[in-house]
Amino acid sequence: MFTPMLSIWLNVVVQGVLTGLLYGLMALGLSAIFGVVRLVNFAHGEFAVVAMYAAFVLFRAFGLDPLIAMVPIAAVFFVVGFALQRMLINSFVGRPDHEQFILLVGLAIVLVNAVLIVFGPDAQPANLPYAFDSYEVGPLIIDKVRVFAAVAALAVCAVLFGFFRFTSTGTAIRACADNLIGAAVVGLDVRRLYAVTFGIGLACVGAAGSLMVTIADAVPSLGPAYTLLAFTIVIIGGLGSMAGALVAGLLIGVSEALAGFLIAPSMKSMFSFALLVAVLVLRPQGLLGKKPA
Amino acid sequence: MLAVRDLDVFYGDAQALDRVSFDVDEGSIVAIVGANGAGKTSLIRTIAGMIRPAHGGITFRGAEIAGWPSHRVCNLGIGQVAEGRQIFPSLTVGENLEMGALLPRAREKRQQQLDRVFAMFPILEERLKQTAGTLSGGEQQMLAIGRCLMGVPDLVMFDEPSLGLAPAIVQEVLRTIRELNREGLTCVLVEQNVAMSLKLANRAYVLENGRITLSGTGEELLADDRVRQAYLGM
User: Fold this and answer.
1) Entry pTM
2) Which of A221, A235, B1, B38 makes an SS bond possible with B34, Cβ 3.0 to 4.6 Å?
């Protein structure tokens, strides 16, 4: 009932969806930081790369599976994000955009070059033992690693949505994003909440980076590429919309997979940017973004 | 209870408050009246810790609080019903109220305060799950007052609570303030509706171009020729 052609298409799309979930998780972190702190994390992709190397080292040195290493890496990234916001970035909140830009681009440069110094410029494959295993479901042949990584990414997203929806700290963070003056009026400790948010944003990227190692080699040059990718996703999904980031991540994942299949893998960015341009022209606030009031 | 001394506030080079001093006694209603741009909101936000004064002192129950961050000021028991209500439009009514009760001083009394707020504004209980942005202006004002009360304040600064509301609702808001004051809440009332706020107030100050130009009991100011001319149109 499935023609060979159709099953190839299906396979490509499913693979794109699975990769897209990782992209979505990474972009979710960027979106949360922007939506609340109103600050653009230009070092986002670089943090993802640091997480990739962290997961790579933990796997090579201790045999720790990246799916498990994700948890301590995300925890450490949370602490780093919290401290970074408290000690460095908070004094830049509310300053002109270009000053924030310089701070975070500077941070990005430091991160990527630190990775270069330690690991060198070459791609480092993690070589998981089950890297070439796959599931066969009807006409679909799905890589095991992609399924695991995607399920883990979904789990992290679910925890995050639960946190923002049901805990009072999560609600307070939404309140800050909703009305900053109102937050000060009721006596929320905005700076602390900003630090928590930045920590959460980095925890997302830490988890996403750890998972990324299972499907891609760690290379320092991925840093700027992932930053750009996360931006593209966040803008397509709608600035500040977390659900939008996830949906757009899926969309980009699928479009990249289709581009690789239809034309050449090197053309995948063209598809992402075409999507970005289309969204900017047709729906500038993003797919799930709110219209500016 | 609250003493403000020689407060100076600047926005860049522009001076918003110039040597402002006034006192609020425990259990009283103090009105601060003045035209738009006189500095009323700046004054309230400075006391609340949202703006840093360039000079001057703010003493609340013996503590010198000038320059404190807003969350610490709130936790001392100084609440604010801000101009423009400043509710969280995309949060539900229940979540808005919860945000008011996150102060360390308020956490234990959360349920008790919630019951009190619902008794005062039954409509908020009906709309509990509704997004606050969908409420009417009057309901949003009730939510703003309710949210403030969730923090168990001892002193509440009301900034233009009647702005943009229908006359019947304005009466209700003022009645609520009088009611809260009878229950022991100290109130600072900043209002463009001068006649109404002077009638309500034990003590009143006139703020003009960032300066206190006149003070007295509410009745004295109501009878004052300058006030009658400038603010009451008589």
Assistant:
1) 0.91
2) B38
